[in-house]
Amino acid sequence: MAKLIAVLNVIAWSGFWAFGYLALSSGSEAGSQTVVAILLAALGGALGLWAYFWLIRHSEATGYAKPRNRVTITEEETA
Q1: Residue 10: helix, strand or coil by DSSP?
Q2: Fewer Cβ atoms within 10 A, N terminus or C terminus of the chain?
């Protein structure tokens, strides 16, 4: 499953950069094409972020990557 998500991550970020470039470089006469390119770039960015964060959580859970330093709040600190 992790390899499938990793492939999705690469494809999503590629789509983000490709359609983002198309949206930015299109002229003012291509209105509807620009909107479609913006929507596809946003979809690629959202899927890329989701897949990236999933891979981070998965690698920490399986022990492949060291977990982040997180502060735990004790009962003494909340009183």
Answers
A1: helix
A2: C
